[in-house]
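Attaching the record inline, Q. Sequence:
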Amino acid sequence: MFLVIPPLLLLYVKNEKYGSMLIYLMLAGSLIAAYAICWKEDFHAIIPSKKNFEMNPNFMFDFYVMPYIRISAYLLGLIYGIQFRNFKNGFNCLFTSICIKVVRSYYWQVNCQNIFRLAFMSSV
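Structure, as predicted:
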């Protein structure tokens, strides 16, 4: 899976629109594949135990080991890394503008001041 990320980054650097589109399509495909496998094999979101593995003995191989299921974590990390880079470099993108609006909002500032007072001033 780590071999897939450098070509995606290279495509993103060469053409931001197509690179982003491919990353999001791969993420959507991974999530759809995970849902389809869970639905087909009747896997449930349960706490791993010996009893649960007896019920679904193929869970580890069919779901957890498959790279097209596990790549979603790598893709999310790639997306957040790209967005963080854009935020730090001041690129005007949707994610950056939303973050700036949230941080500058009056509600956010008042709540941060109240949390600061409760956390640090109450012990005085």
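The helical segments are 5-14, 16-41, 50-55, 59-64, 67-89, 94-104, 106-121. Residues 5-91 form one domain.

More tomorrow.
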